[in-house]
Structures are given as C-alpha cells and as structure tokens.
Amino acid sequence: MNTNPLTNSEIILPSVSYRLKEGMRKNWYKFSRNKLSVIGLGIVLAVVLTAVFAPLLSPYPLHAEKFVDYQNANLPPSGHYFFGTDVFGRDIVTRIFFSLRGALVMAILVLSISVPVGVFLGLVAGYFKGHWIETVIMRVTDIFLAVPPLLLALAIAAVLEPNLTNAMIAVTIMWWPWYTRLVYGMASSFKNEYFVIGAELIGASKGHILFREILPNCLSPIFTKMALDVGWVILIGASLSFVGLGEQPPTPALGQMVADGSRYMPDSWWMTIFPSLAIVIIILGFNLLGDGVRDMLAKGEKGNE
Amino acid sequence: MKLRSYIFKRLLLSLFVLIGLSMVIFVISRVVPGDPARMALGPRAPQFAVEAMRQDMHLDKPLVAQYLYWVKGVAVWDLGESLTTRRPVTKDVQDFLPATLELALVAAFLVVTLSILFGTLAARYRDKWIDTLVRVFSYTGVAVPSFVLAVLFLLLFGYIWPVIPVLGRLSPHVLPPPTITGLITVDSLLSGNLTAFWDALKHLIVPAFALAMGPLFQEARIVRTAMTDNMGKDYLAAAKGYGIPNRVIMTKYLLKPSLIPAVSVMGLDIASLMSNAFLVEVIFNWPGISRYGMNAMLRKDLNSISAVIIIFGLIFVIVNILVDFVVAYLDPRIRLGGKT
User: Fold this and answer.
1) CB–CB contact B305 A155 (8 Å)
2) Which of A179, B29, B106, B171 has a Cα at 20 to 30 A from A8?
3) Full-prediction pTM beyond 0.95?
C-alpha cells in the first residue's frame, strides 16, 4: 500500500475520490465475505445507536436514575416490562439501555488515551533498539504486563474512590503496555528495512522517521487490536462494576446489575440473566467486528480460516 | 551451554520485573491514597495517635527510605497487619491462598488437557461436528466473562438441576481432613479419607469449569490452527512415506511442534485465570485469597491489597518462567540457541 498518502494524493488528484470509493468497495467486499463479521457490525451498530438514543428508545426513561415504584417491584417479564423489573420496580430494559452508555464511553476514553501513549512508547523503544531508552521503556512495560490486568485495575480502582472515572483511570493505566509491546515488535523489525535506512541517509528527522515512515506500516495491526479491545475494555469494565468499583448506583451498569440481581437468583432470575446476556452479546459483537476488521486489513489471502 | 545462559537470562529478567512490580505496588498502596496512617486509624482518631502511627510506619522519612523499609519487610515475609482481620497479613495469606491455588490448579489442568484434546480432535476431524463445536465455543467463550458463566452455572446446578454441589469447598456433613498442604483434595488423599476427597472434588468441578471454559476453547483453537498449518509440511509427508504409523506421526511429529504457540499463550491465560478467580470465588462462596482480597479492596485495607497483588505477581512470574522452559523444551531452536 502507499506508505505516504500525502504525496500520492497530490500526484493523482482527480481520481482520489474514485480511488477512495474503489478502496472502500474492496474493503467492504473483504469484510463482508464472512457473514459473522457483518453480524458483528450489526450488533455493534445496534448497541451504539441504542446507547445514543437511550432516552428515546427506552420505555421508561425515568427508571434509569433514582426511582422507586414498589407496586411494580420484582415483576417477571411481561408485556409492560419486557425483561421484568428489579427490586425497586425499575424496568430492566431501560436500565440495560442506559448502562450501554457508560460501557461505551469507558471503552472509547480508555482506548483513546492508552493507544496513543502505548503506540508512541512502542515506536520509540523499537526505533532505539539497543539504546538505554529501549531498555527503560520495555522493562517498565514488562512490569505492567507481569500482573494480570484485571487484578491491577481492581487494586487501583479500589485505592481510589469507586466511580466510573477512576475505573477508567485504572483500566487506562493497565492498557497501554499491550500496544507498546505490539508496536515495539513491528518497529524494531522495520528499523532495519531499506525505507527507514533510506530516510535516515537523506537526513530525515527522527519525528519524520517515527511517524511518517514507521507508524503508517504499523497501523493495520493497531486498528485490528483496537477493534478487538473495545470488547475487552467493556468486559473489564463490567468486571469492575460487578464488584462495585465502577459506576455507582443509582446510575445503572451491566456488571452492577448482574451482581445485584444474583442475590435474588433462583426466583427473580430475570434481574441477572438479561444483563448477563447483554454483556455477552455486546462483547460477541465487538469480537466478531474485530475479526472482520482483521480479515479486511490482512494483506493477501489468509491460510485456512 | 546455551540452555543455561538462557535460563539465567530469564531469571534475571524476572528479578527485574519483581523489583519493578514492588515499586508499582508501593506507589499504589502508599502514595496514591494520601495518608496511610490516617486511613488505618480512621477519621476520628486523635492527631497524636496518627503522628505516632506515622513514625511507626516510617512515613516521616523520605519516600526512598520508606520504600526500602517496605522492601525489607517483604523480604522477611512481614507485610504488616491487616486492617480488617487485625492479624498479620502473612497469616491471612497462608490461610486463604491454598483454596485459591487448588481451584486455579484444577482449572489450569482442565485448560491444558482439554484444550490439547479438543484441539487435536478438531484438527484430526477437520470440518466435522467437533471442529464446528470448538469454533462455536471459542467465539462464545471469549464473549462470556467468567463471572457471567459462574452465575449461569450457579443457576443451573444450584437450582434447576442440582446434581452437583456448587457452594463452598466441602459439604457440611463431611469432616475436613487435617491441614497438611491446605489443598483439601491432596490432604484427604494423604490422610486416606476418600469420602472427603470425592466431596472436595465434586465441589471443585463447577467453579473450575467456570474459570476454564473461556481459555480452554481459545487454546483448543490455537492448537487446531497450528496443527492444520503443520499438516501440510514436507517433513510429515516424508514421515508418512517412511511408513511411520499415523498415531506416532500425530503425537510425536505433529503435536509437539504444534503445541508451542498454545503453550506461550497459556502462561497469560493461566494468569488471567487467577484474576478471574477474584470474581468467581465471590459467586461460589469459595473461601480463597480472592475473596479475602476483594473484602480488603472494598474496605481499603492497603496492607492486604498489596500482599495479594505481590502474591499474584509472584505466581504470574513463576508461571511465565515455567511456560518459557516448556517452550524451550518443545522448541529446539530456543533450547539450542539458534535463531527463532
């Protein structure tokens, strides 16, 4: 592919929009060959739209916050309450819809901070391989990778006040090393490629080499990992809120709903089962989408998938 | 010897990781939350008591000195006193860790054996029902968090179809065996108490499966992909040409190199298994270190939190060293110091 989009677009200016369209068509063809990816995309779109338009779509928007209606508490699924109501008489559908917001915001914020940081450190460490900079960055990365991510996120979130912001901080702190390691591996191998050596020879600046030569070649694995990671961040977020370290009630969160519901388990099964299913479907959707993105960005044909 | 220098390098790296980890934990437990002495004593404690505690905890010294004091404590296995149980943290850890280890070991055993079994079967009977089964489960397995699976298992085996006990480590009517290792299954075998062994095993199965399910089919898929990739290689055609029986080819020539990618991932998976135990233990009422750590986290018991993280980090580092050695054993390129 073109390593330097700017110069290319200057040369063939008239056909740029055509080429773009053609590229999108090709990508869509590669993406949609696997039906599962399309299903994943559908799920993700549905989740995002539901989250954005939650106040319009949910049957009882008031139930997303502090609300008590003991007359209708503990109702099983019915025509009025599709997924039943919880112990305060709040509609489960509404609370699931609104909890998607926190989950998505968390995924977006965590990735939009940890990915640039991780990628930058990985680029620098990979390019300065053998230099002390590499040693420092990669050993620090090793340390963060030496603890299970969920555990350290739990610990950080536990020391801070329990709320959504601190849960996001905790997960962000845990997330960048994975990108550093991913980019480090690629950058340290590109470092000896001719296009980098060539750029060095004509006196290109370090910034140019890192961001205009090496980075564009690392992008597709990064995007693939990001697409898959959205599901993982949502999962970790749900785990944190499951133990009470995420979004605090009365604001709903999926993990928190599962935890609260599991106390009334055998009789009021709908309080637990529906939020659990929501978690499973969301993560499944993002994983399928991520697989599709990987197939789309993969160069050449894949082996035997 | 190449292998010896490889091992040495690996151990040195782990030492660095542990030192770094101790710094991270120190920062989390001492610097982030403000005044640990005030937190330990609570908001109503008089100022002079807090001052005395500060001196006691060396909080009046510079940060580097504090860190060294803390490391000295860790080195002699003194992690301070738990603020929730009012006992030395190390005592608590000794009491609670074996239950978690037992659970994690059984889950890890399930992951390793079943993933190799299913992976091999899926590769052997490619595009048959078992292959499809592994694929479907590997897709859904990633998407189902272990705590959701645990809740579902609890509903299924606890209420709908109670064929197997799901809560706790032993049934109330079974006498626990004397504590030797702390692992009830091992202890009951050592003391010849088969009833307790069988009961403990039954209690282990459901939580262990809740933990193992996700990674199990991931690994099976990796094994399957590696095996189908290797199946087309020339050396296997040559082996077949020599007339080596299919069974020997499958196990000796195909399985061994195909396990390398799966084993490398297994280290990470077994680690995440330990941290998922955090959530699963809560659901199954399992009296392990995770539940202890969880209580500590909810009550901001910093000494206990840092102890739990240190232990998990240590286990993680050890597992990864073991995994590297297994990979080195499986892969002669690493063992003999060639290019990988």
Assistant:
1) yes
2) A179
3) no
